[in-house]
Each structure stands twice: as C-alpha cells, then as structure tokens.
C-alpha cells in the first residue's frame, strides 16, 4: 500500500510541476487576450488583471485583444481598399491575418523567414513571388529582423517604409520612375 501511495505522490508531483511550467504562462496569455478585448471605457476588473499580465508578458507586446485590433486597423487605413489584395504579411504574428480579414498574398507569410532558411524550395518560391509579382505592400512586425537576404534586399531596394506603429511596419512598393 505504501508503494502505491509513494508512486501516486511522485505522479502528482510531476503533474503539478508540468502544469506550472506549461499551462500557467499560457493561462496568463488567455486572460490577457480575453480581458484586453474590451475598450477602455468597458474595462472590468478582469480587464485590469489582463493589462497587468500583458505588461509582464514581453512576448505579448499588445498583440492580443482590442489594442491589437486598433494597431491592425491603423495599418489598414494607410492602404487603399482596392489595393488590399496586394498586401504580403511577412514575419507578422498570426493575429494579423485574423484581425485584418485579408487573405494571405502568398502561402508563405507569417513565418516565411524561418521556413525559407529551412528549405531551399520555400526560399525559391518566395524569390519567384518577388521577381514575378511583387506585392504593392508588405507588412512586418515592427521589431522583426529579416534573415532572408533576398527578401531583405528587395525591401531595401524596392520598397519604402511609409508607416510604423507599436506592432507593425508598412512598406509600399516604390513607383517605377
């Protein structure tokens, strides 16, 4: 009987440690996402807790909830509606597509930098897109460090930075002069 209790005690200890390590940080992000999804005048005590969690969570950086919606809307206001089909989100967080309502310009977008480094085929697909049909606009996270040298050169040579907010940077294709 003592052996069973000892094993059960070890199992429960491991389960508790596992929960603390893996689920507590994500629970905080969920509270932040739900609580921040209200405008300031509609804040509840739940929203106030969420704001505190967001300040502690360096990964979040305002990418959840109402604040994120405002940042996406802010960028979209700089892009004419008729040109929104030509917006490539390169290295943005996943919230960009959800909140913007735009369809991906290319099948490699959110984590294209990572995947182009892992696969020559993906890197070539991205290069072909920039050579054959450049998007009129590129949106990146404002703090992104682009590793793909081809994309980095394209943005530097063919695009101008027209706007930046807390989360995103917007580039526009230079007009052919």
What is the structure about, briefly put?
The protein has helices at residues 2-22, 24-35, 45-56, 65-76, 95-100, 112-118, 120-132, 149-158, and strands spanning 87-89, 137-141, 159-164, 168-173. With 177 residues, it is α+β, with helices and mostly antiparallel strands.
Structure notes:
It is built from 8 helices and 4 strands. The chain has helices at residues 2-22, 24-35, 45-56, 65-76, 95-100, 112-118, 120-132, 149-158, and strands spanning 87-89, 137-141, 159-164, 168-173. Strands 1-2-4-3 form a 4-stranded mixed beta sheet. Helix 2 (24-35) crosses helix 3 (45-56) and helix 6 crosses helix 7. The termini are far apart.
Q: For the CA atoms, what is the radius of gyration?
A: 21 Å
Oligomer: single chain
Structural class: alpha+beta
Summarize the amount of helix as a percent range: 40-55%
Tell me the fraction of residues in β-strands, as a range: 5-15%
Number of E strands:
4
Looking at this protein, list some descriptive labels:
177 residues, alpha+beta, single chain, elongated
Topology:
Blueprint: H1 2-22, H2 24-35, H3 45-56, H4 65-76, E1 87-89, H5 95-100, H6 112-118, H7 120-132, E2 137-141, H8 149-158, E3 159-164, E4 168-173
Parallel strand pairs: 1-2
Antiparallel strand pairs: 2-4, 3-4
Helix pairs in contact: 2-3, 6-7
């Amino acid at each position: 009987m003592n052996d069973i209790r000892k094993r059960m005690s070890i199992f429960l200890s491991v389960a508790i440690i596992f929960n603390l390590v893996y689920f507590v940080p994500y629970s905080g992000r969920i509270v932040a996402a739900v609580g921040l999804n209200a405008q300031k005048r509609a804040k509840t005590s739940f929203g106030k807790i969420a704001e505190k969690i967001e300040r502690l969570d360096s990964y979040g950086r305002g990418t959840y909830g109402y604040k994120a919606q405002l940042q996406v809307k802010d960028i979209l206001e700089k892009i004419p509606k008729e040109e929104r089909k030509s917006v490539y989100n390169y290295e943005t967080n996943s919230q960009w597509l959800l909140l913007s309502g735009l369809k991906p310009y290319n099948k490699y977008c959110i984590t294209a930098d990572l995947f182009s480094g892992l696969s020559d085929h993906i890197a070539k697909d991205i290069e072909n897109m920039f050579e054959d049909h450049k998007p009129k606009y590129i949106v990146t996270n404002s703090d992104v460090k682009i590793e793909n040298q081809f994309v980095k050169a394209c943005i530097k040579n063919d695009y101008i930075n027209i706007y930046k907010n807390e989360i995103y940077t917007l580039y526009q294709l230079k007009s052919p002069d």
